[in-house]
Structure prediction request, 147 residues.
Amino acid sequence: MKSLENKNIIVTGGGRGIGEATCKLLANEGANVVITCRTEEEGNSVEKNILNSGGSAKFIAHDVTSEESWKNTIGITLETFKRLDSVVNKAGSFISESITDCRLEDFQDVIRTSLNGSFLGLKYGTQAIRNHGEGGSIVMMSSILAK
Prediction:
């Protein structure tokens, strides 16, 4: 028996890296995985890979910094799978250059993606999970770059 059979899970930043690996693992455990990221090519590729492996997946283009995009993602998830059981907030951003070379706009983009995006995932994910009254989970992830 797969431990996540018929659980519906949104994974932000699911198009590559840790997010992609998370999507594949969750699908392998029986979850219906909603892959979200800004890059359609990456999201579609992960969706296709999971579907070709016999898993259940749906890609939704998603900007985690936008409330409207969160509402849309939650709405499509509920329309497709009827309920939401979990959100994995994995989307993040980082700056590779030194602080002296970093522009304020670049830093603000990191804050919008990593903090605001996580806040919105908590807010809208919690609302959707509470709708079915059976509990669920919100998982917050980051990479070593968060340090």
About this structure: The helical segments are 17-28, 40-52, 67-81, 104-132. The beta strands are 8-12, 32-37, 56-61, 86-89, 137-140. The mean pLDDT is 94.
